[in-house]
Write a structure and sequence with these properties.
Elements (H helix, E strand, L loop, with lengths): L16 H29 L4 H24 L2
Helix pairs in contact: 1-2
Organism: Leptospira vanthielii
Keywords: Membrane, Transmembrane, Transmembrane helix
Pfam family, one: ATPase_gene1
């Protein structure tokens, strides 16, 4: 009780439900974006499931990396 206000940098960011919903939306949308891109690339190049699968795995790893990065920021 020194009368000094707390510095904003001393506080941890709040874990609200909207922040978690945003993380979930980012996870799903990044996978969906790369899957759709892979689908259309497959149609253009006539390589049936190749680019769709590459897009899925690339989107999944990118989404997972983003989720881990957010989790480390909130520690």
């Amino acid at each position: 009780m020194t009368g000094e206000p707390e510095k904003p940098s001393d506080k941890k960011p709040e874990k609200s439900s909207m922040a978690m919903a945003g993380a979930g939306f980012e996870f799903v949308s990044s996978i969906a974006l790369f899957v759709v891109g892979g689908y259309y690339l497959d149609e253009y190049l006539k390589t049936e499931p190749l680019w769709l699968l590459v897009g899925f795995f690339f989107g999944f790893f990118l989404a997972f990396y983003s989720l881990i990065k957010r989790a480390k920021e909130n520690e």
